[in-house]
Amino acid sequence: MILVxxxxxxxxxxxxxxxxxxTSESVVNLDxxxxxxxxxxxxxxxxxxxHVFVHGDICDRSLLDRVLSxxxxxxxxxFAAESHVDRSIHGPASFIRTxxxxxxxxxxxxxxxxxxxxxxxxxAFRFHHVSTDEVYxxxxxxxxxxxxxxxxxxxxxxxxxxxxxxxxxxAWHHTYGLPVLTTNCSNNYGPYHFPEKLIPLMIVNALAGxxxxxxxxGQQIRDWLYVKDHCSAxxxxxARGQLGETYNVGGWNEKPxxxxxxxxxxxxxxxxxDPAGSYARLITYVTDRPGHDRRYxxxxxxxxxxxxxxxxxxxxxxxxxxxxxxxxxxxWVANVQSGNYREWVNTHYGDRGAS
Length: 355
Ligand code: NAD
Ligand code: TYD
Fold this sequence. Notes:
Blueprint: E1 2-5, H1 10-22, E2 27-31, E3 51-55, H2 61-71, E4 75-78, H3 85-90, H4 93-115, H5 119-124, E5 126-132, H6 157-176, E6 180-185, E7 188-189, H7 198-207, E8 212-215, E9 221-223, E10 225-226, H8 227-240, E11 246-249, E12 254-256, H9 257-271, E13 283-286, H10 301-307, H11 315-328, H12 330-336, H13 340-349
Parallel strand pairs: 1-2, 1-4, 2-3, 4-5, 5-6, 6-11, 7-10, 8-13
Antiparallel strand pairs: 9-12
């Protein structure tokens, strides 16, 4: 079996569902169930004996030792992280704790487990670290997209903590020989995405008739990757990636934020028209994010060249599926919008003036 950390979050849950549907192997899913962890996303596999959920923290070394010894995974896919840039600006401490200290603790527990494996299992073992393109910093309008050799220039507490975790993973390979793989991917979107991030926030706010908050001039560019394409890329890298190597994963979909918001509004106008008029009437420009990176873009040619991986979805097909999913899963949305999420909306948008 494999061990997944953070498998109750957005990408982790999609990965667990995808893994169980496309392989015969079991998954142990270790997740602390922070505000971003949601077992409802895994409802469809709650009775599948191949999915074992362990509620726990990656900073807890004795728990990690126990889980590794009990389940003897052949590989680890490490998703668990604090992942929201705006939250990292309001409170960076939990990002340092989970992303840096948690990755360090996991690496140490894995090193101890891996060192004691018999030679054939030791050779086959893999530690797959899931990271982000944000570690490379911000691109100018004419710059070439990020390759794997791009300088690390993280600008937010989130990206700095992920960059630190990438460096730890690299060092554990070079120093101790731990068989690691790292993927740095662009912005994901798709089902089960927590509505604090751009695309799901715009969908749920529009449906609720609430303002659609666009930061600054809305001309910041992100490179969008459908989450199921990210899952297939991880499966490929885990199966056939070169040890110690980094692979950039992207969807070749660079779009300014304002274009994303207009696309979401147009799809909602088509699929669930509002008698009050186009959802675009709700677009509201608000004060920009401090230190807001202007442009991210991924050059994913290494993954295509070496492992023949290409995204299956275009942005047009992926965003249509995503909007449809949110319209069909209103109960998931309603449940996720309770508690901590409501507090976050008040803290973050409460005194964010319209600009
Ligand atoms: P998410 O915030 O939706 O989920 C994170 C999960 O980790 C949650 O289930 C949470 O409960 C769990 N978690 C947090 N702290 C933990 C701890 N201390 N111990 C155990 N579990 C803990 O994040 P996501 O969007 O699914 O991202 C997954 C990974 O992919 C992260 O490492 C993130 O940096 C990376 N990534 C995400 C994106 C994106 O667009 N979402 C893009 C690039 C890279
Ligand atoms: P986000 O989904 O938070 O991802 P990231 O910051 O990791 O790229 O934001 C995507 C882009 O959308 C980013 O440029 C910030 C912008 N944004 C808004 O304009 N309004 C919002 O309410 C949010 C959450 C994000």
